[in-house]
Amino acid sequence: MVIRRNNKRMKNRYGEPRLGGGNSRKVAFMATVKLALTSVTLALAALASSAFAATIPDGMQWGVTFGFYATNGYFGSVEANAEIDAIARAGATWVTVVPTVWQDACSSSFQYKDFALTPNDIELMDAIDLIHSKGMKVQLRPMLECKDGMGRLNVWMTPDRVRMPGRATRERVKWFASMAARSAYYARIAERTKCEVFCLDSELDRMVEESGKWKQVIAAVRRVYSGPVTSCHTLHTGVVDFKKCLSDPNHWFHSLDYLTISYYCPARTDADRGQALSVDDMVKRLGGAHAQASAIARATGKPIVFGECGCSSTRDAAAAPSGLGFNAKPDEEEQARYMEAFFRVFAHEPWCRGFHWWTWDQLWPRRKGRTREQIRARDFTIRGKKAEEVFRRWARE
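Above: the chain sequence. Below: its structure as tokens.
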């Protein structure tokens, strides 16, 4: 009996070479080459990503926040297009575009897009393109909200550990895996639409101690996005110990291209309530805030952008700028004076590279018994208010 050897390449059902056939040596060799090329590619990618350290777009960022709480359909609406036109007329050079991402509770480990409450990708990209067509730059910043009514500052879960054999707590691992996935998802949109900056989120302050996990998130973003990467955290709440974080050269803050700060610092004391303070009075009361921000700038060694700042247009709002003021008396002058004082204190600092004022549009669910006009008279928006004129003047100087 003559046994004839089959010299044809053996393949699996996907049409790929199968090891163990007549060409096994060749297949093994090609696999080794492919692995070597992959290693080189990853090394080059890592080298390329390191080139973005301490980069920041040139010029001051005179920006406003746009789209927080926008539901599916808003970014593609006539109303949103009109708002973008108005932002351009107000002199803004930057817009922070905010698609809202959700998780069920502040201790949930899974983030997701809600098809009713999260803007769809097509309208989001169209809005970014429209902003660019008006000559403005874009920071894309997806922001997490919780359906249990708790804010992002309350996002926290038990650190990963083993309390009992076979009963490991892994919620943080799951949450950061979800964070990396959604960050990379939106970073791809930022890359495709040529967004000038990508921001991871804002005010997730109770999770900042996980440096290793945040570095993995940043790495996931840098694999798909070629621009500067930042993250926004609060200074006024005292949750983050910036001095401690920045004193550690391995802290993940140093892996960002620059640091963005959410700073709603008071420019009025409780004793000042009910009094008519001048801009100069507010400037003096912001002295402590100036010293605090300057110290952080020295510690980070990189520029700082105020990613959130502002106050509502209500009486005494400068005493608690982050307060909503739904039941306070409307007062546009208070908001305008606060903005003027804030810019006077920080705009000329060499470490300050801009402001993204909170906010341009107000899309929170309406309160029962209040009209849209009644809400707008007391909210954080500046469109059509005296603060818009202050913003325009500074942005065009």
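The first helix runs from residue 24 to 50.
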